[in-house]
Amino acid sequence: MGKRYDERRSQIRTWNVVIMDGNQEIINRVQSSGLIVLDLEELFPIPDFVELDIRGWLFEEILLKEKDFREKLKQNNWEPYTNKHVAIFCSSDALLPKWTFLLLSQSLNGIAASVHFGNKQQAIQDYLLVKINEFNSELYRDAKVIIKGCSSEYYSESAYVAFGQKLIPFVSSLMYGEPCSTVPIYKRKN
């Protein structure tokens, strides 16, 4: 690793620094290159999510009785979900009708900031896909874009795929990684 590592460090150093009249002047070559770095973590920050597992609302944690379930919905204290992003799911292997979660989401309507099906991890992915879908890619028409790598675990491959698909019709080139080390993804043909 020694010689190759030293060569790479030297390349990075000369890439960022220009020597003029014996003085060092730091030049941001990324900024002057016209490259735009987009970081999913900055563009789409993840809010706090609260999980609502209905396992305990079921008879013997496996059977849904409609009358009892509707009563539980009426009696539940919804205050802890006020202005929160809520992940609704059932952690047991119960076979539930689809309307179960429709009723649950209806009860959270007007209370929660958003409601998503699945556990916290799944709900975050759903949230990210909604936010990516709302993203205005037109702002990056004909731009050279780098999607910054090394984000947290919540930014899954599906988020990167969706974001790439959102950008490709507009950008002139798309790369992944860091400005000093990118992987080319797409380049528009002239």
Q: What features would you describe in this structure?
A:
With 190 residues, the chain is α/β, with parallel strands linked by helices. It has two domains: 69 residues, no CATH class; 64 residues, no CATH class. Helix content is 37%, strand content 23%. The chain is built from seven helices and nine strands, in the order H-E-E-H-E-H-E-H-E-H-E-H-E-H-E-E. The strands form three sheets. It has a four-stranded mixed beta sheet. Strand 5, helix 5 and strand 6 form a beta-alpha-beta unit. Helix 6 packs parallel to helix 7. The chain is elongated.
Summed up, what is this model?
Helices cover 37% and strands 23% of the residues. The protein has 7 helices and 9 strands; from the N terminus they run αββαβαβαβαβαβαββ.
